[in-house]
Specification:
transferase; 9 helices; 5-stranded parallel β-sheet; 194 residues; transferase activity; alpha/beta; EC 2.7.1.-; P-loop_NTPase
């Protein structure tokens, strides 16, 4: 039995989106690849360009935390409607991590940490040319903090295809998925102590 929601979390250029694209083709049932990019690409093109270049957006109504919360609530709505989802983002703020897991409470979730050595992620980021340089580095020390994963994929020396095969083989063993619950508990404790 495959989980209703697969969460891929990792720094920019770690390979999350490439893994998600491989997964939706290889999974035995239909999943939606619902990345934060699904929301960001709905922004006015000039705002998206500014964001990707690491520049501020001054348009009235722009609020990044609101976009992220909207993404979480949209994911919840899709899951409630019965859709199976692959969520892909770099969650770096503990409150956002908690809000996501709170919104998705009660769903069968597989937490996947997509990890990559910083130098490799930075190299990929530069080669891509569609991200602000330094994004992976700015996310690196925060993205996996206070999270428990059901499985971790290291893409430093592994292709997205190989990482996808590793994840699928593991999912086929019908593992007990506790990452979301453990993460929620850890985040609650950390945020209460702050």
């Amino acid at each position: 039995m495959f989980p209703q929601i697969i969460i891929l979390n990792g720094t920019g250029s770690a390979g999350k989106t490439s893994i998600a694209k491989e997964l939706i083709e290889r999974l035995p049932r239909q999943y939606l690849n619902f990345s934060i990019d699904s929301v960001l690409y709905a922004l006015p093109p000039s705002d998206l360009k500014a964001m990707m270049e690491g520049k501020p957006i001054f348009r009235e109504g722009y609020n990044y935390p609101t976009l992220v919360e909207g993404y979480h609530q949209a994911a919840k709505g899709l899951a409630k409607a019965g859709c199976y989802l692959i969520l892909d983002n770099a969650w770096t703020i503990d409150e956002e991590k908690r809000n996501l897991l709170t919104a998705l409470e009660g769903f069968n979730i597989c937490m996947v940490g997509v990890k990559c050595h910083l130098l490799i992620a930075a190299k990929r980021e530069k080669e891509r040319g569609d991200r602000a340089i330094g994004l992976a580095e700015s996310e690196y020390n925060h993205v996996h903090q206070h999270l428990h994963y059901d499985i971790e994929l290291d893409t430093t020396n592994q292709s997205p295809e190989a990482a996808t095969v590793e994840l699928l083989k593991w999912l086929e063993t019908n593992p007990t998925l506790l990452g979301a619950q453990r993460s929620q508990k850890k985040l609650k404790a950390c945020l209460s102590a702050a």
